[in-house]
Specification:
The protein has 27 helices and 9 strands.
């Protein structure tokens, strides 16, 4: 820490209770009272250096040789006046970053300028300030002491000079400097000995991170910190760095920010706060100031941190308008959120659900509102997977949010207090084209049905209409076909679309097989005409034969899967005979297992076996299903 030594005389001041006495051998002729402390001094050393003291002593000593002065308003109080008195007497004193501010303000108050002696205290303090403001650590200490003597430091522009110096240093590239920064400085040798600037060692100083200044500025009071952030932001600093510093400051001073975790994971404590037991009102004000400081640009502040601030605002019972501001900011970049961050516990005692689902729905509403300019939400058509991968940023964001919402629904579904209407309203906010697959939504619905077994059949069908059975993967379809919690109508739809998908798949395999065999025959004819059968051509034909055989095996596997599906349906029909009439309406009545076994499949012209005969009736039953669905 830098220092400036003034004066040359030995110490002549000593304290007796609350009285400072000057042992120069001469009787004191003036008493200066500062607060509860009194100074027994001499007139001449004081009035020769201070314009104010000269004026006051002159007014009071016209009729008597002994006078008493009261300087209760002097900046810095008795501590500052003791340093001033030592300077007037020429006693040795030391100016440093911790006392130079109060000395400078006291000297200004006492009018200790060059009219009362060359090299007076104002000039000495100013020169020292200009010297140390180029150093980061000293500038921090100077700024911290400015609060003690406000508004004098504002009038003397000490605060603005400190902030400008700090902002310039923080905005500079740390790799351009070789001095130790952040007060932690010098590079260390492997033995732990510190060296700086290459002295006594060949080791180079450690690289300085871009966040090197976050920690020290986090100790500043909020008014000074706000001005520093505004200064670095106006100086062109990267907004991510600005947001990073604000986040660091918030973690230190918002003691409730550590209460972030959801119920399953317990509480996670954040960094220790320097503020001891702050009131809720002070914390609310600090939270509002921090949110106001954060850059408005989308994506600059991480979404998970905004959600943590939102949780803190709920704990502190912030105003609804303030919470709405945070909800809008989260909604603008919802695709960056993680599932665990959305699991916001309900605050208060009179709550229905474990998690605050209304808050998440408001956030999702803001997301849809802000995103509607890029996507036409009036369209209910299904978007092809190819279109999703065309690079459309809006669709990519919507798909990410859809996946997030499906996961959220699965987490909140076990809550027995979650109403069906609330579950439906949240799931229905996501347009159908945003989900390439409905597996996540199916999982959430299945969990909800398991946690709410008292739902009626009509309510079960109502919630199942949220998903599209055509957009279930093979694994999800297999699970749904065996899921006893689903209504029979949904199980039939799943099985129907699976057989439709199977028929399409088999037809495509036959088509490819025929094309390959035709290509094989054509190649063989050309080889006979030319009387040349190169070794490479023979290898190609052999590969094609192997491919055709593989296709035949695949078709055989698909037929076995089809037979397994029919057997599952037969089990349903046997256990629930009352549903036979329901199946007849859809033209989906299956033949008995004995009929299937008695009638073998006929070999096709290309060497493969035909589909089981029940596939045709299932396909023909699609028209009956579509025509009679509404009537049922």
């Amino acid at each position: 820490m830098a220092c400036l030594k003034l004066g040359s005389k030995s110490e002549v001041f000593h304290l007796d209770g609350q009285t400072w006495l000057c042992s120069t051998g001469l009787a004191s002729d003036v008493i200066v009272e500062v607060g509860e402390t009194s100074f027994h001094l001499h007139k001449f050393p004081l009035l020769s250096r201070s314009g104010l003291l000269e004026e006051l002593i002159g007014e009071l000593s016209e009729d008597e040789n002994y006078c008493s002065l009261q300087l209760h308003d002097i900046p810095g109080g008795a501590k500052a006046f003791l340093l001033v008195a030592k300077f007037c007497y020429g006693v040795r004193l030391e100016l440093n970053p911790l006392n130079v501010v109060v000395v400078r303000c006291a000297a200004e108050y006492l009018r200790m300028n060059e009219d009362y002696g060359e090299g007076n205290l104002i000039m000495q303090a100013e020169d020292f300030l200009n010297e140390i403001l180029g150093n980061w650590t000293d500038s921090i200490k100077v700024l911290e002491t400015c609060e003690e003597v406000l508004p004098h430091t504002e009038e003397l522009h000490i605060v603005s000079r400190c902030i400008n110096s700090l902002a310039m240093t923080a905005s500079a590239d740390p790799s351009l400097f070789s001095w130790p920064m952040s007060g932690k400085g010098a590079a260390q040798s492997p033995e732990g000995v510190g060296f700086w600037n290459g002295i006594s060692t060949t080791a180079k100083p450690h690289a300085v991170n871009e966040d090197w200044w976050f920690e020290e500025v986090s100790f500043l009071k909020l008014p000074f910190y706000k001005r520093l952030i505004r200064a670095v932001e106006s100086g062109g600093m990267n907004l991510e760095k600005v947001a990073g510093s604000i986040m660091h400051y918030a973690r230190r001073h918002l003691s409730l920010l550590g209460r972030q975790s959801s119920f399953p994971n317990g509480n996670r404590a954040g960094p220790a706060s320097t503020v001891s037991a702050p009131s809720d009102a002070d914390q609310r004000n600090l939270l509002e100031e921090i949110v106001d400081l954060l850059p408005d640009q989308k994506g600059v502040t991480p979404t998970n941190f905004l959600l943590r601030l939102l949780r803190t605002s709920m704990i502190l019972h912030a105003s609804p308008s303030f919470r709405e501001i945070l909800e809008k900011r989260v909604g603008a970049q919802l695709e960056q959120a993680a599932l665990e961050d959305l699991l916001i516990p309900n605050m208060g005692y009179s709550v229905e659900t474990l998690y605050d689902i209304d808050c998440v729905q408001r956030i999702l509403d803001h997301f849809m509102l802000m995103d509607r300019d890029s996507v036409d939400y009036s369209s209910n058509s299904i978007v092809d997977e190819g279109q999703l991968s065309d690079g459309s940023q809006a669709l990519t964001r919507m798909t990410m949010v859809a996946h997030l919402v499906d996961g959220y629904l699965a987490e909140v579904a076990p809550d027995v207090n979650l109403k069906l209407q609330k579950f439906q309203s949240l799931a229905a906010l996501i347009p159908e084209y945003a989900r390439p697959l409905d597996d996540g939504l199916y999982r959430a619905i299945d969990i909800y049905l398991k946690a709410h077994p008292w739902l009626t059949d009509s309510e079960k069908e109502q919630i199942c209409r949220l998903m599209n059975c055509q957009k279930l993967s093979l694994e999800a379809s297999t699970h749904a076909a065996q899921n006893e919690r689903l209504p029979l109508r949904i199980i039939v739809q799943v099985l129907f679309f699976e057989q439709l998908r199977l028929r399409t798949s088999v037809a495509s395999w036959f088509f490819v097989s025929e094309n390959l065999e035709n290509s094989q025959n054509l190649s063989a004819n050309l080889a006979l005409v030319r009387n040349e059968v190169p070794v490479q051509a023979g290898t190609r034909r052999l590969d094609r034969v192997v491919a055709v055989n593989d296709m035949k095996e695949r078709v055989s596997e698909l037929e076995k899967e089809c037979l397994s599906m029919k057997q599952e349906i037969e089990k349903l029909v046997k256990t629930k005979g009352s549903w036979n009439s329901f199946l007849k309406k859809f033209g989906l009545m299956l033949k008995s297992k004995s009929d299937v076994n008695k009638k073998p499949s006929k070999p096709s012209c290309n060497g493969s076996e035909e589909l089981p005969t029940s596939v045709g009736p299932l396909m023909n039953g699609k028209e009956d299903y579509e025509n009679k669905e509404l009537r049922d």
